[in-house]
Specification:
There is one protein chain. The protein is an alpha+beta fold. The protein has one domain: Alpha-D-Glucose-1,6-Bisphosphate, Chain A, domain 4, CATH 3.30.530. It is built from three helices and six strands; from the N terminus they run E-H-H-E-E-E-E-E-H. Strands 1-6-5-4-3-2 form a six-stranded mixed sheet. The protein is elongated. It comes from Aeromicrobium erythreum. Pfam families: Polyketide_cyc2.
C-alpha cells in the first residue's frame, strides 16, 4: 500500500472549516461528492464512506479514479489547534505500480490535495470575513 499525505494550518475555527469541507463543490471546482450519480461536472468524483462529526473526519473512495491506482481510501481530518486556527490533514492509501509513486506524489498529492487545502483555506478565510462583517453590521 502506498500513502500520500498533505497537511496545512488554516487560520479559521475548526467548526467552520469542517462545515465547508463537507461539500467539496462549495470550494473546489475539481471535486464533487457522489451520491447516486455525479452532482456536478467534476474531474474527480468521490463516494463518501464515512463522516464523523465528533472527530471531524471524512473518508471517501473514488469510484473511477483518474489516476492509475486501485483500492483507494482517502480521508480528510480537521483538528482544532486553537479557537481561531485548525490543522487539516488530507491523506490517501492505495495500490499502484511502485515505479509511478513519484508521479502520484505530484498529481494526487500536489495537484489535488495541496490545491484542495489551499482552496479550503481561502474559502474559510472568506467565510470568516463575511461572518465578521455580518456581525458588525448587525450590531451597528
Amino acid at each position: 500500500m502506498s500513502r500520500i499525505i498533505r497537511r496545512t494550518f488554516v487560520a479559521a475555527p475548526a467548526d467552520l472549516v469542517w462545515e465547508l469541507l463537507q461539500d467539496f463543490a462549495q470550494w473546489h471546482p475539481r471535486l464533487s461528492i457522489y451520491s447516486g450519480g455525479p452532482e456536478a461536472d467534476a474531474d474527480i468524483v468521490v463516494s463518501v464512506q464515512s463522516q464523523d462529526d465528533e472527530t471531524r473526519t471524512l473518508t471517501y473512495t473514488m469510484p473511477e479514479p483518474p489516476f492509475p491506482i486501485t483500492n483507494d481510501r482517502a480521508s480528510v481530518q480537521v483538528q482544532a489547534f486553537s479557537d481561531t486556527t485548525c490543522h487539516v490533514e488530507w491523506s490517501a492509501e492505495f495500490e499502484s505500480d511502485p515505479g509511478i509513486i513519484h508521479l502520484l506524489e505530484d498529481q494526487l498529492g500536489d495537484d489535488v490535495f495541496k490545491l484542495a487545502l489551499d482552496r479550503l483555506a481561502t474559502a474559510a478565510h472568506e467565510r470568516q470575513a463575511a461572518d465578521v462583517a455580518a456581525a458588525a453590521s448587525a450590531s451597528a
